[in-house]
């Protein structure tokens, strides 16, 4: 592994950076390889705290480097990201090659399928780190692949879409529980071509490889059913020390794009075991003001302490926050702009987590053994909420009313189930505990995810030996139009 150099590239979103940075640490721990992590120029300036990673950080352009120039719409943003990103990724790879540290393997994540095109053109093998569930990947794959994918069929009957989808290894999915970026005319349909491109580059690869932030026994059937693109579960991508107190080596988790509070651990220390409701909706979702008000009423109605992350990035939130602070005294409910979520979930005072069901938060709650109440918003969140309630059974999903709002009574009912004496709560809490044990088993030495990462690394070494010589300077002798990686691709 000494001669290997991994370049890991991610978009500067919190939910993308965290699992990729953990993978960077795991690769460093599992091998003597050089690992370089890259994100966009502007993204790099937004990171408030980095993990303790003794690798290098590099920046690549997204076309909006000063953070001032804005895209007119998401399509413009994505095409500029592809144009500028392909060009600067090519330059980065060439620079490493000239500096005697040629990149031998590229790992890219969501929204960057063109990175695989650049790598293939430069004869550098690559893998896709899929940072959502295997279930989400399977739905994407069965929807978008060119051989029998259901997207075209679906698209052709957009005014009367099928009410459910049946994908191999999965229970039937109602339309509304499919990731929103797969739905034609849905709110995130501008992302559908990007996911199509992801599937297309995998289909073009002679030996495709998708690393997954999940673990074998959580999504066994569905992983087996997407064998064609070689899915390799290596998760949860969370520091082992936070899952298991016997491992003190590394407790830093991802990075922070938001300023963290400091007072919450002391506040949690003052609360009884398993008494606190933790609430957070990830790094992107902005809830409507009336939804926040219903949540506040529901929380007050439980008469239990709560820790609520309300990001200060939205003015709407600031207005609500002032009102909430007037209604609740800090002993009962603490509102913070950001926290170290994994540290909170690992705290013994936490009894349940009310969340949006983003995949990182879903994995983190499973790994911490904390039962959940899901209020999914968009993207893959409804897919995850369905799996939580119906398959993994470690939580419940709150039901929305006719205008899409979860009312205070429903919030109180759900919280009473997972943290109180509501029906079915015992089973949910014991399932949450079971998944914690299984997640830990997967990542410890000899566990399935640990072994999968080891086998992945061994495979790279073997392949590199077979094609010895390709890594040395292959990139330097070519001139390409990096803005058009598809046209340049070998296939
Ligand atoms: O106060 C906080 C709140 C969150 N987090 C972390 O932020 C990350 C949030 O990630 P995630 O739960 O996946 O939510 P989003 O940031 O909303 O993630 C986006 O990206 C994910 C991966 O593609 C998708 O699954 C989600 O639906 C999408 O909204 C997690 O690691 C949390 O631990 C903190 O550290 N502190």
TrEMBL record:
Reactions catalysed: an anthocyanidin + UDP-alpha-D-glucose + H(+) = an anthocyanidin 3-O-beta-D-glucoside + UDP
Keyword terms, alphabetized: Glycosyltransferase, Transferase
EC primary class: transferase
EC number, as in UniProt: 2.4.1.-
Alphabetical list of InterPro entries matching this protein: UDP_glucos_trans (IPR002213), UDP_glycos_trans_CS (IPR035595)
Gene Ontology BP, a term: anthocyanin-containing compound biosynthetic process
Recorded superkingdom: Eukaryota
Pathway: Pigment biosynthesis; anthocyanin biosynthesis
Keyword Transferase: yes
Record's keyword annotation contains Transferase: yes
Molecular-function annotations in GO: anthocyanidin 3-O-glucosyltransferase activity; quercetin 3-O-glucosyltransferase activity; quercetin 7-O-glucosyltransferase activity
PANTHER family xref list: GLUCOSYL/GLUCURONOSYL TRANSFERASES, GLYCOSYLTRANSFERASE
Protein family according to the UniProt entry: Belongs to the UDP-glycosyltransferase family.
Protein name: Glycosyltransferase
